[in-house]
Amino acid sequence: MFSIETLLKSNEGKTLEFKRDLSSPKGILKTIVAFSNTAGGTLIIGIEDKEKNIRGIEDPFLAEEKLASLINAHIAPQILPEIQILPWRGLYLLMVEIFPSAAKPHYLKQEGLGQGAYIRVGSTNRLADAVMQSELKRVGIVDSFDKQALPDLSADDLDFKAISEAFSSIKKIKLSDLESLDFLTIYQSKKVPTTGGLILFGKDRLKHFPDAWIQVGRFEGITKTKIFDTQEITSYPVLAIDEVMNFVKKHAMHGIEIINSKSLSKNTHTWSLPLAAIREAVINAVVHSDYAQQGAPIRLSIFDDRVEIENPGLLLFGLTIDELKKGVSKLRNRVIGQVFYRLGLIERWGSGIGRIIDISKESGLPAPLFEEIGTHFRVTIGTQAITPPILNSTDQSILQLLKKPKYTKGLSTKEISDAIGKSTRTIRNRIISLSEKGFIVEIGSSINDPQRKYLLK
């Protein structure tokens, strides 16, 4: 049970709304539909929504009955919220608890499904268009957009060579593997590509999904008034991640020191941007983007004080930002997510957001900001330190290892991984973090040198 004191301290948002009374029932019904279609929510009747003045309601039992009748008569499919009468200093309020529904999409009967289905975006109710309604239906039947068949295409529309190269370090791909990877599915006895298969490895992928690419840009200052550099990255998503990060590195302020000695004759690089956190956010954007939306690609914007990563698609219905921060994960694109997992681009389901938060904290940066803006999701990562960096146990183990005299020429990621007993991906992330914090330097003939090693700064 929520206390009135707690509710009054909260602002209206994705899962909370105040209403003065039942005099305008349509607005209340729209909110109930939106809550049911999205992440659920709490509606309090008897409080002015702007000033939060508690007015109470007359005859709460009659109001409770009236509201239940309105919900039953005007909303389809049927919704069964929990309605409670709350006493407050001689007054009464109605608290309506609406739960996320598996019978999506709900809508106002009088307006019909096309004009009566709503979703919750921030503190507002938005009409769900046809694409959004399809997304609601998929969530209700536990399906995903990227598993859908593309009946007008064939297996020849997939780039088998690119698939084989992507998986070359894991296994030798056979044609029969395309079904187990969900790149192909059976449609009326014919093998056809799935949406996910085409987005990942379609020969002509942008013809069918013209927004399935990544736009990156470096802006001068802290606004988008003047752009300094931009690039359109249209490679297959599993390759695009590194291309995005190369752009970030190109524009990251970093120190380069030329080492000339008999033992070392290469350059060292130290970075001032939280590269590991940015990489996690980019991967998260690719995996969770709503590719059914049209009009905008994934975007990464670098400013003097922050980096913004934005992808089409709200949080999957039933999920809130608070739950996201706690590690709750719901995968929108099962095919894409599974491929990224198998290729080692993501380590555990739902762990990416937590790593972004942890890396920012350990680097002494502001807490990252997660927002739903319009029909997009944005992650903002600050780049100006506000506290000294923090070293965890793995960081300390790496530094202790590199202190040993026999490793004065540095160690590779795999060598550090083998010595410490951690996965190469974990070590890679920690090395990037330590480099960003200024504790170690990267040695290599160039930024992309595959033989690069790391040593104490």
Strand order of the largest sheet: 12-11-15-16-18-17
Number of helices: 17
Taking Cα atoms only, what radius of gyration do you get, to the nearest Å? 26 Å
CATH fold node name of the largest domain: Heat Shock Protein 90
Oligomer: single chain
Low-confidence stretches: 254-270
CATH class of the largest domain: Alpha Beta
Label the CATH architecture of the largest domain. 2-Layer Sandwich
Per DSSP E runs of 2 or more residues, the count of β-strands stands at 20
General form: globular
Residues in β-strands, percent: 15-25%
- The computed structural class is alpha+beta
Q: How many strands, what sense, and barrel or not for the largest sheet?
A: 6 strands, mixed
User: What is the share of helical residues?
Assistant: 25-40%
Termini separation: 54 Å
Overall mean confidence score, pLDDT: 86
Describe the structure.
Helix 10 (237-251) packs antiparallel against helix 11, helix 11 packs antiparallel against helix 14 and helix 16 (413-420) packs across helix 17. Helix content is 35%, strand content 22%. The protein has 17 helices and 20 strands. It folds into 4 domains: 4-129, 2-Layer Sandwich (Methyltransferase, Cobalt-precorrin-4 Transmethylase, Domain 2), CATH 3.30.950; 145-208, no CATH class; 214-382, Heat Shock Protein 90; 393-456, Arc Repressor Mutant, subunit A. The model is unreliable at 254-270 (pLDDT under 50). The longest helix has 15 residues, at 60-74. The chain has helices at 4-9, 25-37, 60-74, 112-116, 130-140, 160-166, 177-180, 195-201, 205-208, 237-251, 275-288, 321-325, 334-342, 351-362, 393-403, 413-420, 424-437, and strands at 16-19, 41-45, 75-76, 82-88, 91-98, 107-108, 118-121, 124-127, 184-187, 190-193, 214-219, 227-233, 254-258, 267-271, 298-302, 306-312, 369-373, 376-382, 440-444, 453-456. The N and C termini lie far apart (54 Å). It is of the alpha+beta class. The chain has a 6-stranded mixed beta sheet with strand order 12-11-15-16-18-17, covered by helices on one side.
